[in-house]
Design goal:
heterodimer, A: MetI-like fold, two-stranded antiparallel sheet, elongated, B: alpha/beta, Rossmann fold, 4-stranded antiparallel sheet, 12 strands, binds adenosine-5'-triphosphate, binds iron/sulfur cluster, binds magnesium ion
Chain lengths: ~300, ~325
Amino acid sequence: MNDDRLAGPILADTPLREKVLRRLRNRPTTRGAAILLGVLVLLALLAPLIAPQNPYDLAALSVMDNRLAPGEQGMAGLRFWLGSDAQGRDMLSAILYGLRTSLLVGLISTLGALVVGVTAGLVAAQFGGAIDALMMRVVDFMLGFPSILIALVLLASIGRGVDKVILAIVLVQWAQYARLMRAAALVERRKEYIEAAVNFGLPTRYIMFVHLLPNSIGSVLVVSTVSIASAITLEATLSFLGVGVPVTQPSLGLLIANGFEFLLSGEYWIAVFPGLALVALIMSLNIVGDRLRRSLNVRA
Amino acid sequence: MTAPLFELRGVAKYFRGKTTLAERILALAGRRQPPATLRAVDGVDLTVAKGEVLGLVGESGCGKSTLARIATGILAPTAGEVFYQGRAVAGLRGRDRLDYLLKVQMIFQDPYASLDPRMRVSRIVGEALAVHKLLPRREIDGAVDRALREVGLDLAYRDRYPHQFSGGQRQRIGIARALAVKPDFLVCDEPVSALDVSIQAQVINLFMDVRARHGLTYLFVSHDLGLVRHISDRVAIMYLGRIVEIGPAASVFADPAHPYSAALIKAIPSAARRKAGFEPLQGELPSPLAPPPGCPFHPRCDHAMPACREIRPELAEIAPGRSAACHLHTAPKVA
Ligand SMILES: Nc1ncnc2c1ncn2[C@@H]1O[C@H](COP(=O)(O)OP(=O)(O)OP(=O)(O)O)[C@@H](O)[C@H]1O
Ligand code: SF4
Ligand SMILES: [Mg+2]
């Protein structure tokens, strides 16, 4: 007869993190995407240090340098590796700073949407009844409209700005997290450890945030990595349409918009290079996020 | 007998049935039907004396777990009252309610679902002490260690996570968690049925040890009649949400009064059948959504009389300390 008191803990430690990382590394595409993403994030972080020029500093720009082709040298001797725009702004510097703005907006708005959505989903699952029904009606309503439409209407009425774009993206994205979180929390709430917590008279809010939240949030977090890409896409679209970030802090989307008018006159670099940067960012985020989602077996 | 430690009076729990799609369409067409109610527990009276072990047996789905959840305060009854130490639990607030909740502790059936997978063992066992500030912070570690030692777990594992333990070890953690708050009354819901047979006996022994050491009272739910006979002072037999027989274990097992009890007990000796599942009876267990009229057992009862189809027998004393709900013992008053 085996005595379970004498045996040690049985299951070997295989931290999920380790398994996931291994899977990410083993796929060449994913690996390439992860490296590209890492490089882009690093470039965005280091932009003020490595950019040849501060594209926000109007005094540093010279209109004389406008619309230089890639590789040309400017009046002050600066070489414009990716060319310059109509204001004589170095495109490489503008892209580095634009990357920064795009990533910042994507991350903060995703975080904001997560906080709102996760809390809403948790509350709906915990309290059920009328609160749940009402909240889920709102969620259905929000998800029923194309996100770009909701964001456009909001920004058209409150004006452009980094903070306003973030607000618009949060408004568009919280509902999907709320729905996912509610579904996960409903499953988790039926488990006996939650009943045990009730049996110990632990406060409802404590049970929600200390037991239910950490055990239900996994799938939501995984989905949110893919959602960063859609947040960035949405921001770029809004900025391209002229209701997004302000001209003083151009994101990749706004850079593309600025270069758009020169596309037909042959000055392709003003729009194309920021466009390539945006595509690289979104694709790498999508590939990494999707791989993460699949290896953790989460359905969006 | 002194006042009981614990009492249920007319306790019932109804679950609202899910409306099916067909019903919703009918409702849209204006043919609204009342939602089906599932009578998981349907009028249970029960007393538990201090220090006794009351075994509760019955087929799957008869409402044992629901009854256990009501007893421990996890679920509120739809009707009826729960008394702990003579006080109605429904009226308790704040500190008094917490006292009741902690004194009446549940031990769960599934050791894989009853521990928070993201908490360390030490946190699981010490959680209630810490959150309710039952002990000063620096004394909690000591109390956790004492509880772990008491259930036979090596203190070296106190910072492990539940998934690193076997089923038996997890059940010990669950027992330690309950013991940490110094309960009087443990409601054990099939606490060993999910465990390996070779482990079951050890965990049962642990239950008996801690009971002797702390003078605990048990409501012990089980499928295993052999086990219930072995450990119980009294035994209650449940059928479709009701107690059909209750009495001292020795006399109920020797001479069951209710035909349902008799059928269950007759099936005990066959170990093979016990392994194959708990199906000693002919016929299906009727749905608790639509219990048969009269005696709920009559479709399966060999002794059924015409009255059994119409008049529901109430639980009544048939001998000192023994009650049964069957017309064989209480001649039905013919209307
Ligand atoms: N939360 C719930 N909602 C709806 N129905 C429920 C709920 N909990 C239990 N039931 C139903 O109530 C009845 C009794 O369930 P319960 O779990 O109490 O039975 P049990 O005797 O413990 O069965 P088992 O031996 O399988 O554990 C079952 O028909 C079950 O489907
Ligand atoms: S009341 Fe009738 S049907 Fe019910 S158990 Fe007794 S004899 Fe059988
Ligand atoms: Mg059960």
